[in-house]
Amino acid sequence: MTDTTSGDAARATDSAERAGVDMETLISLCKRRGFIFQSSEIYGGLQGAWDYGPLGVEMKRNVKDAWWRANVRERDDMVGLDAAILMHPQVWRASGHLDTFTDPMVDCRNCQARFRADELPSAGDGVCPNCGAKGQFTEPRMFNLMLRTFVGPVQDDAATVYLRPETAAGIFVNFENVLTTTRRKLPFGVAQIGKSFRNEITPKNFIFRTREFEQMEIEYFCRPEESARVHDAWMRDRMAWYARFGMQSGRLRLRAHEREELSHYSSATSDVEYLFPIGWAELEGIANRGSFDLTQHSTYSGKDLNYYDDDRKEHVVPHVIEPSLGVDRCMLAFLADSYDEEVDEKGEKRVVLHLHPALAPIKVAVLPLSRNEKLTPTARDVYARVRLHWMTQYDDAQSIGRRYRRQDEIGTPLCVTVDFQTVEEDRAVTIRERDSMAQVRVPIDGLVDALRERLVDVG
To answer: Do the beta carbons of residue 335 and residue 354 sit within 8 Å?
Structure first.
């Protein structure tokens, strides 16, 4: 994954623009409704670590499924991979992570707080944002972001391995294996979703920057002369993916890196930026990495990682286009983008997550009008029918109005209400839509089909 977060964070800090919801409101909603909790909270928590609750884990799975479906299952030029987190240490020497994967770090001598030097808004006048002391910063020193551990019973240099800081390396070192087993021809891509780890100096802004995170990465291999065109195509495709799943176009932009921002191996990189509650910041990086990675791993491993073109009768080292997106950061963007507060005709506030149905953690809520014993058997029967097809929630606590509000707040697109007319007259139920609050009555026997018509683009 292209690491451009420091520049983005600086722009976010300086920007007066913010998303419509503040971070504190999102954090409160996520905890209250079971999306995301502070890790190890009963012990005081661990900075930069978060746990996904019952709704959060469903939404996170939906985000990954939507990405996988669009980029692997719906294309004929992509395959998948799931590489190990622990890899041979030489992998990271070849990739440059052992020597260059660093951030500048400073300490405040007065309060001992530690900061990334490139993220201090008051670095020019030397004022510590924690204690206010002036001129107490140490000289910047480079800090490697790799997290180390040991394999085997002896903790020495020979047993040192690293938790991977990106998933991409697993694709590069498996290039020959994938090529041999799939018999792919250029251009083709390999996609992977998996955990990565970075020993961030100052993890912050909720799940925007954490030490343990999940990535959705693609390495797309093509002929060198086609790389610029392929890079442009992937930028269009990735922007279209966000639009497909409902992200507001006014909060999304594509920004090309200036020459001084580019990594030494990149001929072109563009960031998909989103207007987060902290301001404009990187959501996804799309880089033209050239032949750097395959060449480096060929050199360090002694294996010939090239491609033989049967038609042209020549060997070529493919160039690589890398769209790289953090699952957690993507979650944060979709949550912020969908958050809305409305005032109803009674003057009461209605909080709504306008999540695309494919991303919503609960697709359908089944709500009996009350806990009356006449309604429960039919409501349970409806629930049993619907949950065979979608993630469904049964809720009979409190008034029907309060239950609608609860479902709106967690983004449930459709509610199905079972009332006395259902059991006494017509064997029909009411479908209530989240966004419009419109209601329509349909027979129970036709309910699944009616729901399917309304759950657009749900895989």
So the answer is: no
Q: Is the pLDDT of residue 144 over 50?
A: yes
Does this chain's domain 5-95+148-335 share its CATH topology with 362-454?
A: no
**From CA 449, how far away is CA 452, in angstroms rounded?**
5
Residues 105, 120 contacting (CB under 8 angstroms): no
pLDDT category, 18, cuts 50, 70, 90? low
Question: pLDDT confidence of 445, banded at 50, 70, 90?
Answer: very high
Phi, psi of 67 (to 5 degrees): -65, -45
What would the pLDDT profile of 80-119 be if each residue is shown by its tens digit? 999 999 999 999 999 988 887 777 888 888 888 888 887 7
Residue 375 has pLDDT above 90, yes or no: yes
Residue 250 to residues 247, 270, 326, 351, Cα–Cα distance (Å): 9, 18, 21, 21
The DSSP code sequence of 127-178 is B-TTT--BS-BPPPEEEE-PEEEE-SS--SGGGEEEE-S-SHHHHHHTHHHH
Q: How far is CA 289 from the centre of its chain?
A: 22
Work out the mean pLDDT of the chain and round it to a whole number.
91
Contacts 24+ apart (CB under 8 A), 373-376: 374/420, 374/423, 374/424, 375/418, 375/419, 375/420, 375/422, 375/423
CB proximity list for 123: less than 8 A, separation 6 or greater: 117, 137
Q: CA 103 to CA 211: how far, in whole Å? A: 14
Most confidently modeled of 1-5, 43-47, 80-84, 344-348? 80-84
Q: What's the rounded Cα separation, in Å, for the pair 204 and 23?
A: 11
Structure-token match 């209250």, residue found: 32
* CATH number 3.40.50.800 given to 362-454: yes
What ranges do the domains of the chain cover? 5-95+148-335, 102-144, 362-454
| Residue of 130, 84, 83, 78 whose CA lies nearest to 108 | 130
Dig out the tokens for 401 from the structure.
Answer: 């109005």
Which CATH number applies to 5-95+148-335: 3.30.1440.10, 3.30.930.10, 3.30.450.20, 3.40.50.150? 3.30.930.10
Q: Of 93, 134, 126, whose CA–CA distance to 110 is shortest? A: 134
Section 39-47 average pLDDT: 92
The reported pTM is: 0.89
Q: What is the rounded CA–CA span in Å between residue 408 and residue 182?
A: 45
| Encoded tokens for 139 | 């000289």
Give CA–CA dist 271/248, Å, rounded: 17
Tokens 């097809």 found at:
389
